[in-house]
Amino acid sequence: MEREDRSVNPREDGQRKDDSKGKLSTPRLTPARQKQRAPQQQAVEVSRAEEGPVSVSPKLSNWIKLNSKDLKIRQTDRSWAAEVVNDFRDNLLKFLRSNSDQPLFRKAEFLTTGSYFEKVKIHSPDEFDMMLKLQAPSRLDMKELDGGLFYRIDFSRPTRSQSPIQAFLLENERTLSSSKILNEMYRLVRKFLKTYKVPDKRCYWEVNRKRPNTPAVTLSLLRTEGNSDELISVDVVPALEVHPCQGWPLAARNGPAVDNWLGKKVRQEIKSLPCYFVPKRIKGRNLSEDAKESWRISFSHVEKKIITSHGNTKTCCESNATKCCRKQCLMLLKSLIEGLKQRYPKELHDLCSYHGKTAFLHTLSIRFSDSMWDRQKLPACFMHLLRALENHACQGDLPHFFVPNCNLFSPAAFPRKALDFLVKALEEQRMEGLPLLKPATPVPPLRLINTPSEDASTEMSTYNPSTGAVYSVALMKKLAVVFAIASALVIFLCK
Ligand SMILES: [Zn+2]
């Protein structure tokens, strides 16, 4: 599942260290002015954004293509991270399956979802999501708390007294407590880490402090020596699986609007998949007892499925002749969103890549034909997608793709002021040739942390996360010698 699906809060440490990138050194965005716009004016802008073919200047077109290539290169650099994370995942699963003090987690399985596995992870391969599937033991009553995203979950019948789920029920013995499940997940991960060793002995995992409204146990991979910069971040999210025979909750019952795009048959297939709930507390203060123990519905497994097989025809992207640019467009949009968030962390605190993904899914269901996404048309397609997001923001209307009654841009979900700022920021990016598309810092090539025992002659490398650079010790020694000679020469010549 997407990180953003669980927490709309960006990573606090995600701020751009190198702020030199954005041309917009002083935010010229003036939300107050934006607020005063007349409704008619907005409508004109909206209709303008909906106009047919988008014209893209050759310069902008090249810039978009260049960034798209860059993203691809960055993607290939993730084998070290994948290895470390897979080892962690496999061993955590072994631990959970053999642990005697918590039988509910003994049948757990991992669902591989989230952007890493969709191959649309952007600037670096260092964030991973893992959904830990927990089976609901019997039928559930799912009571909507907010129009379809958040629920209170009760068991329809009393559970057997020996059932492992008993320990996670509230006093009424029917309601499943999201906080109890999440706390237990924390406890188990901490217990696991007491004995688990990272294959690369120079690193260790640490559990992060709990953040409110986050359904994940977040861990950081840190170095045993030297600086404390985070190398990899992993989110482990317990996800309650509702049995497919029970169907999706009412608010999502129709299935997503994919008939024109993927076909009715696929919609039926999608609807036959189980749905999941993650232990996420609804936003807001003075919450009722129900809301404090709320669960949020998750469709990340379905999102993964439809992004993987995204063609209007089955042959899309099967051969070089049929390659489309849909995934590239999504990656570019995510990249721009990351850039915007890093540039304006405070103003765009509520923005997350899930907004981009949602706009993307809506766009795919409207522009459904494969020929519209021909690889050659990447720049125009991306501008279309960008306009679509801008449009949703302008109208303050971005329906959740699976729960259409829930508006991700409603004032409760996305403050008006922030939305106005977003509209202006997107417009500015579009007008100025997308300067924030480019990431500020190069991607850390994580694979360069070798295991010293591997080979005595292996060169040691040091990685500087603040610049993302990796230095070979031998190379640095050579450089030091060159520098010393050069300095001596300069002193000698100056004399
Ligand atoms: Zn395709």
Automatic annotation (TrEMBL):
UniProt-listed GO biological process terms: activation of innate immune response; cellular response to exogenous dsRNA; DNA damage response; negative regulation of double-strand break repair via homologous recombination; paracrine signaling; positive regulation of defense response to virus by host; positive regulation of type I interferon production
Ranges of compositional bias, category Basic and acidic residues: 1-22
InterPro entries according to UniProt: Mab-21-like_nuc_Trfase, Mab-21_HhH/H2TH-like, MAB21L/cGLR
Bias type Low complexity, positions: 31-43
Mab-21-like nucleotidyltransferase domain residues: 116-308
Keyword Ligase included in the entry's annotation: no
Keywords of this entry: Membrane, Transmembrane, Transmembrane helix
Domain Mab-21-like HhH/H2TH-like: 325-427
Pfam families: Mab-21, Mab-21_C
Molecular-function GO terms, alphabetical: 2',3'-cyclic GMP-AMP synthase activity; chromatin binding; double-stranded DNA binding
Membrane-traversing stretches: 469-494
Region (Disordered): 1-52
GO cellular component: cytosol; nucleus; site of double-strand break
Family: Belongs to the mab-21 family.
Name by which UniProt lists this protein: Cyclic GMP-AMP synthase
Protein's organism: Larimichthys crocea (Large yellow croaker)
